[in-house]
Amino acid sequence: MTPLEHILFGKKITSKLEKIHTYHETHLLRPENPAREESLKIGKSKFPQAQELSTLEGRVKALHSFASHELQAIELMSLALLFFPAREDWEKKYKDHLLLALDDEQRHFKLYEMRIKDLGYNFGDFPVNLHLWNKCKNITTLKQFAAVMSLTFETANLDFALHYALYFRKFGDEKSAHVLEEVHQDEIVHVAYGQKAFDASLEHENNFFKAYEKELPFGLTPAHSRGGKEIFDLKGRKKARLTDDFIKQTRTYPRAMRAKSSS
């Protein structure tokens, strides 16, 4: 197998963190789930509330959850590079970006993993989930991937990264706050590239938001692209060149519809 294929089909964390220099499509069968080490237990892993960061265990659990999300992002980006065809010019350019973003996600995971170790724990000490992966199981195109990964998951992380950085700092963990701020800066770039790619994918659609909403799979709505009205990073979204209309539509999208779609 190639290094890129090892990310999905290799169980060891080290194989998922190997530097990838190029991408290719694969003839292997698309996996139901990414291969994982037996030591990584899949289970319920509730994300700690911000106030729980007042305890060491709460801070580690938050870092562990962020690391789990980064691991899924690594696996999902390798999935897109391996299995989603790139025939149009915008698709090829988007894959070029995903290759760079994959390197960022690997670096993010390492930062979280190192910080967890600094605090006396190891990645795998708590259960992990496949929440992001499961939301992407029916995705088959790069247009869908841009909508889900860039414009939903990574856009929401603009909110979560800044929000939790504030609370890490509030409770005296400056190093963890710096990690989250570094991730936040990279997410702005990722969201910007996703916005550019999705916009380039539109042919006859003239409503960016409606086209985005249409591409989301069952279980996801535009409300999932925000952390919450109280933790909404407007400045980061503007830096990522999201339009005022898209920002407004996603910010005000009813959470009741979000809850209904996720049930």
Strand content: under 5%
Q: Helix count, per DSSP?
A: 11
Output the helix-strand order: HHHHHHHHHHH
For the sheet with most strands, the description reads: none
Q: How confident overall, as mean pLDDT?
A: 94
Total beta strand runs: 0
Q: What is the rounded distance between the termini?
A: 38 Å
Overall form? globular
Unreliable stretches: 258-263
Rg, nearest Å: 18 Å
Helix content: 55-70%
**How many individual domains?**
1
Going by helix content, strand content and strand pairing, the class is mainly alpha
Layout of helices and strands, plus pairs?
Blueprint (H helix, E strand, L loop, with lengths): L2 H7 L3 H4 L39 H28 L5 H30 L12 H5 L6 H29 L3 H28 L6 H8 L18 H6 L4 H9 L2 H8 L1
Descriptive report:
It is a single chain. By secondary structure, the chain is an all-alpha fold. It has one domain (3-18, 26-262). Helix content is 62%, strand content 0%. The chain is built from 11 helices and no strands. The chain has helices spanning 3-9, 13-16, 56-83, 89-118, 131-135, 142-170, 174-201, 208-215, 234-239, 244-252, 255-262. α6 packs antiparallel against α7. It is globular. The termini are far apart. Mean pLDDT is 94; it is low at 258-263.
